[in-house]
Amino acid sequence: xxxxxQKRVWFGLAVLGLVLACAVFARWIAPHDPLEQDxxxxxxxxxxxxxxxxxxxxxxxxxxxxxxSRLIYGARPAMIVALAGATLAAxxxxxxxxxxxxxxxxVDTCVSRLVDIWMSFPAVLLSIVLVxxxxxxxxxxxxxxxxxxxxxxxxxxxxxxxxxxxxxxxTSARTIGxxxxxxxxxxxxxxxxxxxxxxxxxxxxxxVVVEAxxxxxxxxxxxxxxxWGGLVQEGRLYVNQTPWLLGLPxxxxxxxxxxxxxxxxxxRESLDPLLVK
Length: 277
Known about the structure:
0% strand; 10 helices
């Protein structure tokens, strides 16, 4: 029987794999053009409802656009931001965290004070300000996420690096003549990678939420491109008449974030030797 831990890992992988497949193969998977309007079929309920149509499994919006197709295409910006934003934030935060945690002294003090100052700003408000200054678009959203969330990686990697630096294998590497930089990248970094992988999956979930918030307020991609946050913004205007317009994109965001968190927690327990039973 699959352990409970493995169920969480497989659940996260399955959901994220499905969302990623929708993002990559949206052109072939989506049953309709997400921008095609049909006012004669406007506000159709999902197909399982009494007035639903099989041609529109999740119904249509007020302009007759197919909701399922728009959800599938909305996975594209969500996954681009999640992967690119988390990767860039991880690179910046990991480099600074390793540097500060291993060298200590004035380097550690400066990096730690910078992290404290940066984390004192409200994350969502800062992201909105950054995108408003940089300009709208996926590139701006990715940069905003990286600029804000590198601190998450930096603090955790710094603490783990400090713990690893006190272990015997680091002392042995230094004793046989390895340089500090070689010891850091060849010895310490591989032992930090399991924790880094867990942080990366959790950051993907955070990036999905941030992208949804920014697209909700119109600061993500152009208005003609479907996004989950944009669908939420449209659906809230007609929540009493067509509640599925709001409920379906909210469910897509929630399930994706839940999958990221489940995968991250499962990997943490799988890869941490102190938690493995």
